[in-house]
Amino acid sequence: MNPNSTYHTKCKSEESLLVSRDEHAAFRCSPSHCKHGGRCTQSWSTFHCNCSNSGYRGATCHSSKFERSCEIYKHKGNTSGHFYIDVDGSGPIKPQLVYCNMTVDQTWIVIQHNNTELTTVQASPDTNQHFANFHYQSEEKQLSAIISQSEHCEQELSYHCRRSRLFNTLDGAPFSWWVGGPAPGQIQNYWGGAVPGSRQCMCGLQDNCLDSSFYCNCDADYDLWTDDSGLVTHKEILPVRSLLLGDIHRPGSEAAYRVGPLRCHGDQNFWNAAFFDKETSYLHFPTFHGELNADISFLFKTTSSSGLFLENLGIKDFIRIELSSSTEVVFSFDVGNGPLEVKVKTGLPLNDNRWHRVQAERNVKEASLRVDDFPATIQEAPSDGFIHLQLNSQLFIGETQRFEFFHMPSA
Ligand SMILES: [Ca+2]
Ligand SMILES: [Ca+2]
Q: Which numbered ligand comes closest to the C-alpha of 14?
């Protein structure tokens, strides 16, 4: 017996143990194979996941019902509006409702907070400071994922003033400051349009302040309305979380501030494109990990009538997606029960040099394949068969044919 087959036998016996535990009807929901809070119910022979209100779908509530970014909604032909986005797809971060602004060249994700309007601050003898806290619609994990996956983010930070100073001098303690960045945030002493840490406003950076001995228009302390307005554009200092204004109590002081919504554009995952023009070109990545649940989605365009999109091999198990003919995509895999194929026949040619979308999912109950808006093909897994997908080679993408890809990493 060669060493390989010894190793293989060992794997198989481990898997058999797991299967035999699953075979016990009383334990089909323990542990539960339902993801994202899906409710598990069981019968003698199988289990069922109720995914309603979870935002996820599929036999195990693994795949997100929503796209990862506004960019993808735009790519699918949508116009501006409110959309649910799920920034990490089937990962643990929940879907969130955002506004997608698609009217201009860029596609912006717009995240509101509780106070985006211009807000007037009245001088009052009882209070010598004004403090404002900004609460975002999104949870912290959602905010930080959007900021980190975007190419650019920005937020308006404006101060309108009349006898109300912002910082006033570079050496004294500043009158005002704000807090920004990942929770809980850090104190910032520069204003929108200037450089972090500079204790300046945009006019200081541009050397055109009202009074050239100060670095903000408001710091001149004139008895006329002026403003310091600009954008905070450093991702590591976003979002703006709170604001303290400290020069609002003198007679004649008047001020208003505006902290705009957080706006981001450029989905770095989406524009993760690769182009293959030689028969030998390919990309390779670390081994794909998705033993019980795996989902893969990508966009491709090609003029070739067949080719391999991706492949990852194990000792016996494998996973593969290919264009088998100009009108058929095949998702095949083996988790130990012999090779299984899930095919979508499109009727229309896919090698028309236009973008097409492929979504494949495999979980312990079934495997599914979707191509564009053609009817999905779903194939049930054999009951009480092997369930673990065990891979050990590198993941190869676009091995042999002419493809251009937008590959969206899966979870
Ligand atoms: Ca998610
Ligand atoms: Ca296996």
A: 2
Ligand closest in space to the Cα of 385? 2
C-alpha 337 to ligand 2 mean position (Å): 8
Cβ partners under 8 Å of residue 349, min gap 6: 326, 327
Phi-psi region of 277 (alpha: psi -120 to 50; beta: other; left: phi over 0): alpha
Residue 411 has pLDDT above 80, yes or no: no
Res. 25: pLDDT tops 70: no
pLDDT in tens, 37-90: 999 999 888 899 999 999 999 999 999 999 999 988 998 889 999 999 999 998
- Ligand in nearest proximity to the CA of 381: 2
> How far is ligand 2, taken at its centre, from the CA of residue 130, in Å?
62
d(CA 125, CA 145) in angstroms, rounded, equals 43
CATH number, domain of 121, equals 2.60.120.1000
| H and E: helices and strands count for the chain | 4, 28
Q: Which domain holds residue 47?
A: 23-65
Under the banding of pLDDT at 50, 70 and 90, the label for residue 123 is low
Residues 347 and 404 in one domain: yes
The CA 293 to ligand 2 mean position distance, Å, reads 13
pTM over 0.70: yes
Same domain for 256 and 122: yes
Q: Which ligand is nearest to the CA of 411?
A: 1
My answer on whether 313 and 356 are in the same domain is yes
